[in-house]
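Lab notes, practical 5.
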Amino acid sequence: MQKQTQLPDKMKVLSGSALKLLAVVTMLIDHIASHLMTADVVLFSVLGHNVRLYPLLRGVGRMAFPLFAFLLVEGFVHTHSRQKYGLNLLVFTLLSEVPWDLLHHGVWFSFKSQSVFVTLLLGFAAMYALELLQHKPVLQIAAILLGAVLSVVLRADFSVLGFAFILLLYALHEHEVLRILSAFVLNMQWWSLLAFVPISLYNGKRGFIHGKVLKYAFYAFYPLHMLVLYLFKFHII
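Output from the prediction step:
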């Protein structure tokens, strides 16, 4: 099947590493606003209407999850080892549990909600199941339903909408023109659509993040930045 593209190859200037960096930065902006800022900071006023910093930063942060979901699908499609890729996700899902609970609930362990790593892990598991069960459509449907139920029961970040978004990106992997429609599944601010601008500029290359140190540093940033935000949020540092 010929891949549908929105832009000519010469305009695709962003590597996977660039998308990872953008995902991390927009996520950090979102979390700083969410956990450390109040909603009353006014940047400026236009015709008597105040433009506040908090919703602006949270809007920018809405780009993060679509980018992470896209990178998950790309990683799944191109990885040399599905098992190792899944194991990495599982390890950092577990490592993120305590930082998530400390930052969001102020305790070491809670079932009130789970991190986005849980959503990504469920998305990976569903994609893997669809691949392994490609000639067994009934079992494929069962795997999707199981992942959807778990995303709700575990109270994963973005819940079933995030899970469905990942699977839609996977299903539309070869259809760049159509995959932007998957953003509407998230039922989020229109800011999330902006994530498809850099995604459309992706050139399919790995980029500057390579080797084990940088690779795992990208994974580790998630739990580490939550620990730092927790320390600031509760005035420990």
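Observations recorded by the TA: The beta strands are 42-46, 49-52. The first helix runs from residue 16 to 36.
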